[in-house]
Design a protein that fits this description.
globular, mainly alpha
Length: 458
Amino acid sequence: MTNSPIKHTPLLPPSIAATTDHQLRSPKSNRGLRKLQSAHQLSSNYAASNTPSLISQQRQQQQRHTSSSHHAPAPQIPPLPILAAHHRTRSNSDAVVPNTANNPTSSRRANAPRKTPANQNPREELEAMVRQGPQGELQTELARLRHLVLCEGLLADGDGMSQLRIYVWLILLNAPAIPTDSYLELIRRGASPAYSKIRNDTFRTLATNPLFKRRVSEASLIRLLNAIAWKLHDAKMDKFGDSAKINAATELGSPELQHASPAVKHAQGPSTTTATDGSEAGGTEPGIYVQGMNVLCAPFLYAARSEAEAFVAFHIFVTRDCPGYVRGAMDGVHKGLALVDKCLAIVDPKLSAYLQSKQMKAELYAFASVLTMCACTPPLPEVLQIWDFLFAYGPHMNILCICAQLVIMRETLLTSPSPTKLLRSFPPLQSKLIIEITVSNLRKIPADVYDELVHHAE
C-alpha cells in the first residue's frame, strides 16, 4: 500500500479525481481493485489530459540521453505541473488583436471622434480637449478652447483651485515642456545677482491674502524668482556678449557696489549699473528682476501643481507676452498707463473728462494694476478667472479690464469731490462683470488703438 500510486491522486486533473472519488471513499470493498490499478493505467488516463505522465517523461529522458552526443548536456526534466481547477484569466497582452480592417464596426469604434458640443456638456468638452489634445485642426481647436474659457469658465472650488487651470494656461501660452532637472539646475546655482532685491520683496507678496499664504511659501517664491533671474541673466549674457559679462563681473566683484544706492552706482559709471536697477537708472536693456515681478508670479505658483510648471509658464509670460514690463525702466508699463487714459476716453468720455479735470491720470492710480495684471487687487479666485480670460485673448486685454473697473465705479467717482481717495485702492474684483464690460467695450476701440494695445508690452 505504501508504494501505491494512489498517493499521487491530488495531482490528477479534476475530471479524473471526480471519477475515482467514490472509490477513494470506500474503506474495504474496492481495496483490491485499487491494488490492481497500476501506474501504467493511471498514466494512460492521465495522458488523456494532454499532459505526459511521470513514467513517460522518464522514458523520454532516457531515449534523449542515449541518442544525444556526449558533448551536449542532457536537458533537465521539467517538474510535474500541479493542475488547478481555476486558471488565470487572459491578460490584455495575451488577447488577440482584432483585425479592424475586416471589421468596420470595431474600426469606427476605435477611431470615434470626441463628442461634439451638441451632445456633450461644455465643461466635459473642455476637460476632454485638455486631456486628449486636439482632435481636428489646431487653430480651430484653440479657438474653441478660448470660447469655452470665455463662456463656461474653468470649474474651480471656493478657493479658486482648479485641476485644469495650469494646463489650460500652458496650452494658451504655448509653453514648451521642459524637464524638471532644468529648473533644479537653476536652483542649485545659488543666489542670482538679483537675490537681495528678491528677498526684499517676497515677504510682502500678497501678505494680507490668507489663501495665498496657506498654499504658497515664501521659500517657493524665492526659488522661482531666483531661477527666473538666472534664466534672464543667461539670456542677457548670450545677447550682449563680452560687454555684459564685464559689466556684471565689475559689480559682482565689488561688495561696496552691490549694496550701494543707484546714485552711487551711476556716479561710478554706466557700466556698473546692473539690469536689476534698470528701472531706477532709466535703462532700456533687458532686466533680470524689477519690483512687482513677485506679485506677477504669485498667481502662477498658486494655480500650478509644482514649481516647475509655474516656472515654465511665468518665464514664457514675461519673455514672450510682456517683456516690456520687466525691461529696464518698464517702458511697457508706462505705455500701458497711457493706453488706460486713451481707452477710457473712448469707452466713457464723461468719466475720463472728470478724472482729467481732477488731474487724475492713470499713472497715479493704475500703475500696480497694469504691472501685475490686476493681481494686486483681491480676491485671488477672481484674479485667476480674469487671468483665464487674459491668457485666452491676450494679456493686452488687461488695459480694458482696468477701464472696466473704472466703469463699475463710475457713479461713485462722478459724485465724489475727491476721487483720489477712492482710487487709492480698487474695490474687490468682480471677474464676470469685468469681463462682460471688457468684451462690450472692445467693439468701441478703433483698429489703430487696438494695435497699440496688442504691441505695447513688447
